[in-house]
Structure formats: structure tokens, C-alpha cells
Specification:
The chain is mostly helical. It contains two helices and no strands.
């Protein structure tokens, strides 16, 4: 595996997005750690104000079950 410091800027951002996505979806045990490493390298290179430009999916959250009683 390539160290985050050895990647180009574009490749670093791409891999940080991929690892963060895998971490959010539970794809790998190490995905969260790897995402943090890549994001830390991004903060060192670009400063603290950067955000990942990958859009998060807006899938519907599980709805709360309705109570069996009715509030009048």
C-alpha cells in the first residue's frame, strides 16, 4: 500500500474519499484508520479548511415506528 505522503494531490483526495466512504458503509475494519491518515495528510498539504467534495448519499433513514395510541 502506498503511503499517503507519496501520492499526488489528486490521488490523495480520491483515496481519502474512497476510504471515508468505505468507513461509513462498514466496508473494512481498517477503513476508518486509513481515512483518517489520508485526511491528516490532506490537512497538512492544503490547510485545515478543506472539505471532501464527494457528495454523501441521501438515502432515507429508518422511520420511527408510530405509537399504537393516538394523541388527540
Amino acid at each position: 500500500m502506498t503511503h499517503p505522503g507519496d501520492l499526488s494531490d489528486r490521488e490523495l483526495v480520491k483515496r481519502a474519499q474512497q476510504w471515508r466512504r468505505q468507513s461509513l458503509y462498514g466496508g473494512s475494519r481498517n477503513a476508518g484508520r486509513l481515512a483518517r491518515e489520508h485526511e491528516a495528510e490532506m490537512r497538512q498539504r492544503f490547510g485545515g479548511g478543506t472539505t471532501l467534495s464527494a457528495p454523501l448519499t441521501m438515502r432515507p433513514l429508518a422511520r420511527r415506528p408510530r405509537p399504537w395510541w393516538r394523541v388527540w
